[in-house]
Amino acid sequence: MATDLEHELAELLDVESFAPEAAFRDRALIADDRVHREAAEDPAGWWLKQAKALSWFREPTVALDDADPPFYKWFTDGTLNASVNCLDRHVEAGRGDRVAFHWRGEEGEVRDVTYADLLADVQRCANALKAHGIGKGDVVGIFLPMIPEVVVAMLACARIGAIHNVVFGGFSAESVRERMEFSAAKALITVDGARRKGRTAAIKAQVDAVGMPVRTTFVVRHTGIECPMGDGDVWWHEALAAADPVCPPEELEAEHPLYILYSSGSTAKPKGILHTTGGYLTQVAWTHRHVFDLKPDEDVYWCSADVGWVTGHSYIVYGPLANGCTSVMFEGAPDYPDKDVWWKLCAELGVTIFYTAPTAIRACMKWGEQYPARHDLSSLRLLGTVGEPINPKAWLWYHKVIGGGRCPIVDTWWQTETGAIMITTLPGAQAAKPGSAGTPLPGIAARVVDDAGEEVPRDTQGYLTLTRPWPSMLRTLYKDDERYVATYWEKYGPRTYFVGDAARQDADGYFWVIGRVDDVLNVSGHRMSTAEIESAIVSHPKVAEAAVIGQSDETTGQSVTAFVTLEGNLEGDEALEAEIREHVAQRIGKLARPKRIIWSDDLPKTRSGKIMRRLLRDIAEGRELGDVTTLRDPDVMSRLEARVKELQAEDGA
User: Fold this and answer.
1) Residues 172, 630: contact at Cβ < 8 Å?
2) CA–CA dist 446, 513 (Å, integer)
3) What angle do CA 206, 208, 212 make, to 5 degrees?
4) CB neighbour list of residue 419: distance below 8 Å, 6 or more residues apart
5) Residues 6 or more apart from 329 whose CB is under 8 A from it?
6) Which of 199, 232, 250 lies at the terminal end of a domain, its last residue?
7) Which of 119, 165, 423, 557 has the CB geometry, 3.0–4.6 Å to 87, for a possible disulfide?
8) E strand spans, 66-175
9) pLDDT tens profile 223-277
């Protein structure tokens, strides 16, 4: 028998949008489209006006410098300091006792860190860095788990004008070493050990094993495991205890580099994306406040990302702290010690705004409604998604089961390169369409174009581009201007940013991001998005998750192979395979039907939740696998390899 949710899913196809409820709209920071109209009249001037919400040593009078595209600059005559905007101004305004982070450890540990606590630790850490020869313009690597010290380290660098280079805690030590080499880091801040689902990894020992090209390594004692200390190694707590408690902030130009964040390259070295201070802070603060309809005196905000990704930089650290709000920081996984831990914390801490990834939502769907049902989630008033397009089935589950049918959902599109949210709905002013990110935010311009750069008609798939500079944009790739131009600006010229995503824009101006341009199949001459096929498969009521790849095919060039995870304890069989194929044919067309369906209890994902389709292609094509140490569960690959070999043997029999 179909569930209520399945009936609602069927009806969803006839629902155009979800408008904000009157109770939400009446208290919303933005409740109409005036802000879009105002920004459209003078985009650069509008952003200059928003910059005034920050604290400046010297307030800027110049908005955009576009004299040398694509090397755009913002607020060039202004000076400021990011740590002052995130900490000092709140403490000086009498809000030092406000909790900045409700930190919760994996084993239930509790730390409530106030703005005054953070400011004290940041100043001592900044002085400790200076005592070890770190100064303005130097690069400091940070390789830490989700603990408050990672925020202290980032803001300490910002305070003295050092450039932080955070590496996601799930990466291998070799990846850390590579990023330290590329950035010529002078110091590394790391940890004795990191915990994950009841196990502890010896991080410092792993770092030592590959050798770090830095002068000084600061080590945070977090788990208390045995930790080797050698020449150049310094205990974090000892360095802070010995440091002077007062560190005046550096007055920095708006274009002073704030951080480097390396994103993986598929065939080349990682790309060091460089963000600067004034423009970045302006846009992350504005978007965090208005996209999430933030009321700092009332809200408890939780972004479930890791600080090691740009989502964590922008919407765990810089945006929330610049706005003076109270956030949640959780060390652990969403299914440890049980699959209700997120919802337990939401209820206990009175979380009002929750921001997570569609991958995580689909995992929660698979685990079942019984886990969130254990807890009172009535404090929630707004939900958000980030990282990839959310399929309508997951959107509806999130809206109904987590949001109780009352919470607006902001589906945010942006990139590491953009620095801040670019396309979404403003929750008090615009209706949400399940599956669509929404419209460009005020001051942002986007178009869908063809290969020649000409705008395509509405409801036609093409390439997503950004056609106007924005304050939080990357300024270059660190020490690689040539690659910066070639990667983002060569296709359409220095005034049109090539996003790398396929998209369409509907009649109402809403953007539907379909997926990466390189995630496209060519079946019998027909180009199809893997994301579109995945969404069709996942819309089947028995499917929890799917990953689609293209496999070489003598007849059609490529054929569709789908790795499918079913809901709950369901098991796949030939009848269900046929059912799913027909379901896809009805939703997209016969050419999109998977030629092969491979049942899987899980999919290979990074610890941030992204599915590694490259590894699935390797398995399907029988190629040797690359490094799988960064996967959340490396054992998934061996199980999938065994399953594929079993199917190949059956095919050959």
Assistant:
1) yes
2) 12
3) 115
4) 275, 280, 283, 284, 310, 314, 472, 473, 474
5) 101, 102, 103, 104, 146, 147, 148, 151, 316
6) 250
7) 119
8) 73-74, 79-80, 99-104, 110-114, 139-142, 163-166
9) 999 999 999 999 999 999 999 999 999 999 999 999 999 975 443 467 899 999 9
Question: What pLDDT sits at residue 14?
Answer: 43
Beta bridge partners of 253: 79
> What is the number of domains present in the chain?
2
SS3 571: coil
- Which residue, 495, 496, 535, is CA-closest to 515? 535
Beta strand 257-263 with 163-166 is parallel
**Which runs of E-coded beta strand occur in 15-59?**
none
CATH of the domain at 185: 3.40.50.980
User: What's residue 634's pLDDT?
Assistant: 77
DSSP line for 517-529 = TTSEEEETTEEEE
In this structure, the strands spanning 353-356 and 300-303 are parallel
Q: Has residue 210 been placed in a domain?
A: yes
State the Cα–Cα distance between residues 91 and 96, nearest whole angstrom: 4
CATH number at residue 628: 3.30.300.30
Q: What residues contact residue 586 under an 8 Å CB cut-off, 6+ apart?
A: none
- pLDDT at residue number 624: 73
User: Is residue 474 domain-resident?
Assistant: no
Instruction: Look at residue 336 and give its three-state secondary structure.
Output: coil
Helix (H, G, I), strand (E, B) or coil at 236: helix
Instruction: Specify the pLDDT at position 521.
Output: 74
Q: For residues 417-436, b (16+ Cβ closer than 10 Å) or e, as one string?
A: bbbbbbbbbbbbbbebbbbb
Q: What is the per-residue DSSP string for 378-397?
A: TT--EEEE-SSPPPHHHHHH
Tell me what pLDDT residue 267 has.
37
Q: Which regions of the chain are under pLDDT 50?
A: 1-15, 265-268, 653
pLDDT confidence of residue 31: 96
Question: What does the block give as tokens for 82?
Answer: 């990011």
Distance CA 636, CA 633 (A): 6
Find out whether 239 and 205 touch, Cβ atoms under 8 Å. no
pLDDT at 630: 61
Q: Are strands 110-114 and 257-263 parallel, antiparallel or unpaired?
A: unpaired
Nearest Cα residue to 516 out of 554, 467, 549, 476: 549
Please identify, among 185, 216, 250, the residue that sits at the C-terminal boundary of a domain.
250
Contact yes or no for 472/418 (Cβ under 8 A):
yes
pLDDT at 653: 44
CA–CA distance, 466 with 70 (Å, rounded to integer): 12
**Rounded Cα–Cα distance for residues 53 and 600 (Å):** 50
Residue 577: give the domain boundaries: 519-652
Domain-embedded: residue 572 = yes
DSSP character at residue 215: S
168 in any annotated domain: yes
Question: In whole angstroms, what is the distance from residue 612 CA to residue 552 CA?
Answer: 19
Strands (E), 132-206: 139-142, 163-166, 187-191, 194-196, 199-201
Select from 538, 585, 542, 539 the least CA-distant residue to 562. 538
